[in-house]
Write a structure and sequence with these properties.
By secondary structure, the protein is an all-alpha fold. Helices cover 72% and strands 0% of the residues. The protein is built from three helices and no strands. Helix 1 packs antiparallel against helix 2 (43-65).
């Protein structure tokens, strides 16, 4: 028979951790919106700021909502996430490389 689910599981976060994650996510979303709408940065700096804020928001979601960390219990989840992220990077990078190479070769004719 399966074990009964306990009321407090160590893999789940506390109410305060969820609240902190939510507040950080809202702040990062508002900062991204403000960076675009305020037009205080040049376009290249705006893209760099949005990229940085997006990466920070991904980390916030991974840590506070998906509970991904470097503890012993999470080692398989972390390895699976790193493998999936590397696969996505290789696929997107390869696609962009092929598209760029094809565009260069087509323009030379």
């Amino acid at each position: 028979m399966a074990q009964a689910h306990t009321a407090h599981d160590s893999s789940h976060g506390s109410y305060s951790a969820y609240l902190i994650g939510f507040v950080l996510a809202v702040i990062l979303t508002v900062a991204s919106f403000a960076a675009v709408m305020a037009h205080v940065l040049p376009p290249s700096m705006t893209i760099a700021a949005l990229t940085f804020l997006a990466i920070v928001q991904i980390v916030v979601h991974l840590v506070f909502f998906l509970h991904l960390n470097t503890s012993r219990e999470q080692s398989w989840n972390l390895m699976c996430f790193i493998f999936a992220a590397a696969t996505v990077i290789v696929i997107i990078g390869g696609t962009l490389f092929i598209m760029h190479d094809t565009a260069i070769n087509m323009m030379s004719r």
